[in-house]
Amino acid sequence: MAKRVLVVEDNELNLKLFCDLLRAHDFAVEPVSDGREAVARAREFVPDLIVMDIQMPHVTGFDLIREMKRDPELRAIPVMAVTAYAGREDEERIRSAGANAYVSKPISLARFIGEVRALVPSDAVEEEPEPEPEADVEDEAPGEPEEEGA
Ligand code: MN
What we know:
Helix content: 25-40%
Distance between the termini: 60 Å
Number of domains: 1
CATH topology: Rossmann fold
Bound molecules: manganese (II) ion
CATH superfamily: Response regulator
Structural class: alpha/beta
Strand content: 15-25%
Number of strands: 5
Strand order of the largest sheet: 2-1-3-4-5
């Protein structure tokens, strides 16, 4: 089953970018553009990961992360914060609010997905086994040398 990611982001372009990127990597996504709906939607969707913008109108990502980490039903869900803040102080603030990871904007798509994968390991049963190396079938039969340049 696809892993589920709730994406909370007020900027519609970023919201679409994050959701498209996650869908392209086989995640099931639930977009939330109004932070005020984030907690209720998290309860309904039961995500494996929450991607959380920090700067939003009405309610900040800091407040939402703190609220979720106080909630017995939601606290175990990892949170990846996404923000334009770049300073070390801000990163510490984000982590002390309870975020498990932090990606700064403008985001690197590879880093974004790398952090997502680190927080949401795929189930062992979903992993494809390594294929057995195929036997070499190109050995020529003995006694039948190919003629060259004849
Ligand atoms: Mn924002």
